[in-house]
Amino acid sequence: MGRESATVPCMTAPATSAPSARRLRTRAALLAVLGEHGTLSRAEISRLTGLSRSAVSSAVTDLLDEGLVSETTAPTAADLARPAGRGRRAAAVTLRRAHALVLAFDFGHTHVTAAVADTAGTVLGEATAHLDVDNHPREVLDAARILADRALGAAGHRLEEITAIAAGIPGALDTRTNVVRAPSTLSQWIGMDPAAELGRVFDRPVTVGNDAEMGARGERAYGTGRTVNDLVYVKASTGIGAGLLLDGRIYRGASGISGEIGHIQLPDTGTWCRCGNRGCLESVASIVEVRRRLVHVLAPGARPDEAVDLPPLDHLADVPAAARVIGEAGRTIGRVLADLVNCLNPAAIIIGGELGQAGAPLVHGIRESVDRYAQPAVAEAVDIRASRLGLRSELYGAIDAAVAIATTR
Length: 409
Fold this sequence. Notes:
The protein has helices at about 20-35, 40-50, 55-65, 75-80, 135-155, 195-200, 210-220, 280-285, 285-300, 320-345, 355, 360-375, 375-380, 395-405; strands spanning about 40, 70, 90-95, 100-105, 110-120, 125-130, 160-170, 175, 180, 205-210, 230-235, 240-245, 250, 350, 385. The strands form four sheets. A five-stranded mixed sheet has the order 6-5-4-7-10. Strands 13-12-11-14-15 form a five-stranded mixed sheet, with helices on both faces. It is globular, with a radius of gyration of 25 Å. With about 400 residues, the chain is an alpha/beta fold. It folds into three domains: about 20-95, Winged helix-like DNA-binding domain superfamily/Winged helix DNA-binding domain (Arc Repressor Mutant, subunit A), CATH 1.10.10; about 100-215 and about 395-405, Nucleotidyltransferase, domain 5 (2-Layer Sandwich), CATH 3.30.420; about 225-390, 2-Layer Sandwich (Nucleotidyltransferase, domain 5), CATH 3.30.420.40. Mean pLDDT is about 85; it is low at about 1-15.
């Protein structure tokens, strides 16, 4: 006897209404602002998009359900700017990106650092060596591979797993030809194409940029510039250079050699600069000159050829004589930055490099000159601060450059 078929009532699935145009616009705005700024709190998203907090909250919930974003207690720009111990850390929203590993290099004048990181910017392993980068390019390129292997070993990964590679170098790089141009820095690298050279070492494409540019990228992606569309990052070390982020994009100039503020000439200064001119900013306010003056005030009996160990710069803020020297260097740098502020009207100036470690005396000196020489409205609009990434801004910028490549493939 055949099985009787049961009569099943016709069930109609409940209708689901399509998202409204307003909801779609809100969703698109959130994804765009997170893609541009990285990690943000809900309050920061509301401020940057102009959306109400309730609209942001609803949209974030939808994106969390879809797995397009994650929400953690990682520090946001507002958290980093807040004095320690004040206020509860806000939850932070981040785009979920495809998992990948990147390799980044920070080439300084006297060191090379290699780091392996994931696409969230987490450093998984790194290695550093102190080398004469300016004068021995071949040895430095060989060392880069050794350091990469050490960083990969520390991270527990292999080179074959690396998706993208980026590096910052302490010299002017002509973006039209990818070769090093300025003879006053990296003198033995003139005419070399660092990206091509590193590409041969690692047998894959490598992205290379100027170190100050990488510093600006690092501050924008992982530092205190995450909610700022217009900032100037100043790397104040042996040389003084600026990385320019304008309207949310790195500005390199017609040939990639923008930001050489260390060679802006100051009035009434006759000191010879390594570029061949007199009175350049870096000839009177570089870390080399500041240390020379600190030796004079902290160890007045030292012979000119005598090596003197100075305390770290961040330990000298409470030493009046040292603070005066550092403050004067800040005022000198600020005199040049005031003109830049008048021209560009940035929201923030972030001071990095070795001299940036001096902290408050340096920043206060820069602030004093900017307030004195820039137009009042633009001086009032700019926030001047020391980098919270310290000497790692350039490394994190190279990580960001590599992540940008890895996540768009």
